[in-house]
Design brief:
By secondary structure, this protein is an all-alpha fold. It has one domain (43-147). The protein has three helices and no strands. Helix 2 runs antiparallel to helix 3 (86-147). The radius of gyration is 32 Å and the shape is elongated.
Length: 149
């Protein structure tokens, strides 16, 4: 292998390596970035609306679900007492309905409670971040005073 061939192969390998590395990162923005913001954006009004909707769904579903459960159990009892096999099947469906509706009620309560917690946690984070940033600007001002700027 001649020296020129070796240099050419090294250059090709270096090009391929840099291409692979670029695939794992976002291309740099022109102008150095500046004021960048992430994709995730939420405000307290949105969180509150979702939490309220989950709470309302829970309240309404609990009421309607209890009515459906009671009606199904009553119908199942009536069918069983008249000797219809359908009564046992309807009773089984009513039992499954109870399990599934409890799962849904628990899930909606969890959503509502979690969003209330998230709202409070983010408010605390905001206070912490604001305090940290203001401390940094105070420190910067002190350095600028010391430099005589």
């Amino acid at each position: 292998m001649a020296w020129d061939e070796w240099e050419k192969l090294k250059a090709q390998a270096a090009e391929e390596e840099s291409t692979r590395m670029r695939l794992n990162q976002l291309a740099p923005e022109p102008g150095g970035g500046g004021n960048q913001q992430g994709d995730l954006k939420v405000n307290q009004r949105d969180l509150a609306a979702i939490g309220d909707a989950a709470f309302e769904l829970r309240q309404e579903f609990e009421q309607v679900g209890n009515h459906a459960r009671a009606a199904s159990q009553k119908a199942a009892g009536g069918l069983k007492s008249e000797g219809f096999a359908l009564g046992g099947a309807l009773d089984h469906v009513a039992s499954r309905w109870i399990d599934q509706s409890r799962s849904l009620l628990d899930a909606t309560a969890h959503i509502s409670n979690h969003l209330d917690y998230t709202k409070g946690a983010h408010a605390g984070d905001e206070v912490h971040i604001a305090g940290t940033v203001s401390s940094i600007s105070t420190l910067d001002a002190g350095f600028n005073e010391r430099k005589g700027s």
